[in-house]
Amino acid sequence: MFKSVANNNDKKIRKTFHNKNSNAIPNLSTNSNPNKNTSNKRKSKILLVLGLLAVGSSLFSISYQKSPPQAFLEEVDIMSKEESLPKNLNIIFVLGGPGVGKGTQCDKIVKDYGFVHLSAGDLLRAEQSRPNSEYGELIKNYIKEGLIVPQEVTIQLLKNAILENYNKSHQLNFLIDGFPRKMDQAITFEKTVHPCKFVLFFDCSEKVMLERLLKRSKTSGRDDDNMESIKKRFKTFVETSMPVIQYFEQQYKVVKINCEKSVEEVYKDVQNAIKDHE
Ligand SMILES: Nc1ncnc2c1ncn2[C@@H]1O[C@H](COP(=O)(O)OP(=O)(O)OP(=O)(O)O)[C@@H](O)[C@H]1O
Ligand SMILES: O=c1ccn([C@@H]2O[C@H](COP(=O)(O)O)[C@@H](O)[C@H]2O)c(=O)[nH]1
């Protein structure tokens, strides 16, 4: 189908050319042109036009740099507070495939160590259900398709939650669960919010994660706990989120934890990792 459209277009273009240049077969060789004067005049005209275009684009580029369009981040009005974030935050990223057990382990860490648990997925779902949210529909679609919501939205939600907790109770210790899941998020968050101290990477086979998710689907009420969305989430994890883990591995920031064990056994490894980073 695409081929036939392309062929039609191609024919149309060729036809137009032929009409405008009745006898014309385009000739790119200057030597074969009998009228050199006319050819030279044409060349000078073309050079003049190219020169004007170059000057124009330089002027445009200078003015563009002086007043670039506002970054999307500034336009997101989920809650744009002017307050700056504290510089001494203690941030642990909690990463791993869908259903590996991130939330389960975070709940246990919160109880024992008093961290604040911020799940990027939970924040997005809350924003999705917020009445009149500008991003509700967008978030819903991305989640159903297992795709990563544009970073501006997620980072703003995380910033707001960090600030809220800091303002309320001077909390500095945060578990950021299920984020960053894409390279742009990792870089922007560490640059504009705070670098992470280390990364807990929960590892598990897809088979086990699928079993856990299907079991959870009976009670979770989540739009994406179904076979179709789960497959898409696995794909996104492998293709988009694993490179983030590799990026932090190169910085020796990753503690990999095998999650094909009981919740308590996994938690022992988690505690050791926290101890090693005190
Ligand atoms: N070690 C474990 N052994 C058996 N079941 C587990 C284990 N850890 C978690 N589960 C169960 O697996 C399901 C998924 O766990 P959890 O919600 O913590 O995963 P998650 O990584 O946060 O998922 P998601 O990425 O979808 O948010 C839950 O029903 C949980 O009770
Ligand atoms: O940084 C993020 C985190 C999550 N999402 C989207 O939310 C769903 C659900 O996330 P869970 O961590 O499983 O609760 C995820 O599949 C993404 O669609 C995101 O876009 N960005």
TrEMBL record:
**Where are stretches of biased composition, namely Low complexity?**
26-38
Cellular compartments annotated: Cytoplasm; Nucleus
Q: Which InterPro entries match?
A: Adenylat/UMP-CMP_kin, Adenylat_kinase_CS, P-loop_NTPase, UMP_CMP_kinase, YKL023C-A-like
- Record-listed ATP binding positions: 99-104, 216, 261
Q: Where is this region: NMPbind?
A: 119-149
User: Could you tell me the keywords of this UniProt record?
Assistant: ATP-binding, Cytoplasm, Kinase, Membrane, Nucleotide-binding, Nucleus, Pyrimidine biosynthesis, Transferase, Transmembrane, Transmembrane helix
Top enzyme category? transferase
Name any cofactors this protein relies on.
Mg(2+)
GO CC annotation: cytoplasm; nucleus
Q: What does this protein do?
A: Catalyzes the phosphorylation of pyrimidine nucleoside monophosphates at the expense of ATP. Plays an important role in de novo pyrimidine nucleotide biosynthesis. Has preference for UMP and dUMP as phosphate acceptors, but can also use CMP, dCMP and AMP.
Q: What is this protein called?
A: Uridylate kinase
The encoding gene: URA6
